[in-house]
Amino acid sequence: MGGDLEAPKQALVDITNGINLAHAELKDLGMIGEASAGRGFSDLALSGMELGHGGLTAEFQTFCDRWEWGVRALTLRGNAFAQGVGLSAGSYAEREQYVKDAVKIRVNSLNAEIGDARMLHEIEDIKMERSRTSERPDFGSAPPLLAHFDLTLDGSATAYADRLRNVMRSVLTLAMSQEFADEDIPVHSLPEWFINACRGAEGPAEPFAQAGSRRYSEETGSAPWELQNWLYRFDPELEVRGWSWWDLTSLPDGRLRVWTDTWGEPFFAWEDLRWLLYTCGARTIDGPVLRGPEVWAQEPSA
């Protein structure tokens, strides 16, 4: 398919209207500011007082969470397509004015534009990502840019590093082996303390995880993550996780630094990572900051 692809103007108008109407419907549900990201369904959950049954409340919350991530993935694809072809639609329309002339696109450049809009996680990529949770990667395999987060801790840096690496190793193993179309992902391979830190868990949460959950909510204004909702962020086909694990290093002042591969993007989805970093016991998180891999290479792994 080496030739140019001409798109009829009316077809582009129809696509534009479709994306904008979808966002308008979300805004009608009260998701102003969240509609263009496909977010806000979690806010529809009702309290036990409103539903009159605790079990029903929990199930409805889970439904809202799951539905939100599905809608968000489709919305992001629509936004990425709009940006790729220059349409005044979705979140792109909120940042740019309408492109005046008819859009002329190449299939290969369209694929490149859409691909760059989100992080792709193929099974082979996840396999390499998992290996980096146990072994320091080679400098020669590093991308041109990495994003890092600096962490201050309340307790032992060694214990923190073990907790963080263990959760990442476990969830990436699930990402390689599980069918995310199933109703629930099995969680027995995850550390028990992390399971109990998530919303709706039956067991008691460790003090460091309780404190981290509280700090997460204070910083973001969001409720703690439900475990299955968090796990679905690692679905290779969902394409909503904007980062890939690279390394964890020690700084001279006692802080830890988490390095991630974000395809060089300074803005990316990382709420799932924020939740993990806090529940592992972080007191503060600074970042993300883009740096060259030569900076990472000078720091010892933790």
Descriptive keywords:
2 domains, two-stranded antiparallel sheet, 12 helices, 12% strand
Short structural description:
The chain is an alpha+beta fold.
Structure in words:
This protein has helices at 9-28, 48-51, 54-85, 90-95, 107-116, 123-132, 157-177, 192-197, 207-220, 227-231, 271-279, 293-297, and strands at 5-6, 104-105, 146-153, 244-250, 256-261, 282-291. It is of the alpha+beta class. It has two domains: 5-116, no CATH class; 123-297, no CATH class. The strands form two sheets. A four-stranded antiparallel β-sheet has the order 4-5-3-6. Strands 1-2 form a two-stranded antiparallel ribbon. It is globular, with a radius of gyration of 21 Å.
Q: Helices and strands: which structural class?
A: alpha+beta
Describe the global form. Answer: globular
User: Which spans of ≥5 residues are poorly predicted at pLDDT below 50?
Assistant: 1-5, 27-51, 87-118
The number of helical runs is: 12
Largest beta sheet, briefly? 4 strands, antiparallel
Task: Estimate the strand proportion.
Answer: 5-15%
Distance between the termini: 48 Å
